[in-house]
Amino acid sequence: MTSALEELQKDLEEVKVLLEKSTRKRVRDALTAEKAKIETEVRNKMQQKPQERAEPGDSDKPAPVTAGYTVKISNYGWDQSEKFVKIYITLTGVHQVPLEDVQVHFTERSFDLLVKNLNGKSYSMIVNNLLKPISVEGSSKKVKTDTVLILCRKKAENTRWDYLTQVEKECKEKEKPSYDAEADPSEGLMNVLKKIYEDGDDDMKRTINKAWVESREKQAKGDTEF
């Protein structure tokens, strides 16, 4: 079975033969116009991209697999030693990913993690405004079974981090009782004791109750002596 291009080429050859034999001007003009038309069609066919002349069955081939969307990591744990702040991120199967696809970039007050091509997805975690400066050169990562461990080297060793980021510190400080200089000092103390009592364990509550009773007894005794 001949292709469309081959048919056009045959038509073109036949028009050329007829044009050579023709003697009438009107006929020659018509044949010349047809010849130009066929030549244009032949050029267009030959310039078609290979995919436009795909072989039968090409449409049945599976499309290439592309990377999926990026998942933001929000769950993690952290602790510290004298030299390092350690962040633990659990990702099932991460130890099977090529090491070059687990990337961590450090700055003095931040780090960002990118894990590529893990079960058809990428995973990203960005932590800005670390509580204290870190050493970029001394920081690193480790990939363990289902876990990425990020090691932030403390710039000032033997210093304790109460929070991972400055934002966490500010949020916690806002939750602390505020002190009003113009307020009754005893009222401020009561608010502090109330907060400690509500957040404390059973031993703390018993201690506060005992102190409260003793304070009331002393106050009552002082009033009687007066």
How many β strands by DSSP? 8
Principal-axis shape: rod-shaped
What structural class do the secondary elements suggest? alpha+beta
Mean pLDDT across the residues is 79
Which regions are unreliable across 5 or more consecutive residues at pLDDT < 50? 51-66
CATH architectural arrangement of the domain at 70-161: Sandwich
The major beta sheet can be summarized as: 4 strands, mixed
What does this protein look like?
α1 (4-21) packs antiparallel against α2 (25-46). The chain has helices spanning 4-21, 25-46, 166-175, 185-199, 202-225; strands at residues 70-72, 77-80, 84-90, 102-107, 110-118, 121-127, 134-144, 147-154. 39% of the residues lie in helices and 24% in strands. Among the domains are: 4-49, UVR domain (DNA Excision Repair, Uvrb, Chain A), CATH 4.10.860; 70-161, Immunoglobulin-like. The chain is built from five helices and eight strands. By secondary structure, the protein is an alpha+beta fold. The radius of gyration is 40 Å and the shape is rod-shaped.
Descriptive keywords:
single chain, 226 residues, alpha+beta, DNA Excision Repair, Uvrb, Chain A, four-stranded antiparallel beta sheet, 5 helices
Q: Secondary structure elements and their pairing?
A:
Layout: H1 4-21, H2 25-46, E1 70-72, E2 77-80, E3 84-90, E4 102-107, E5 110-118, E6 121-127, E7 134-144, E8 147-154, H3 166-175, H4 185-199, H5 202-225
Parallel strand pairs: 1-6
Antiparallel strand pairs: 2-3, 3-8, 4-5, 5-6, 7-8
Helix pairs in contact: 1-2
Can you describe this structure in just a few lines?
With 226 residues, the chain is an alpha+beta fold.
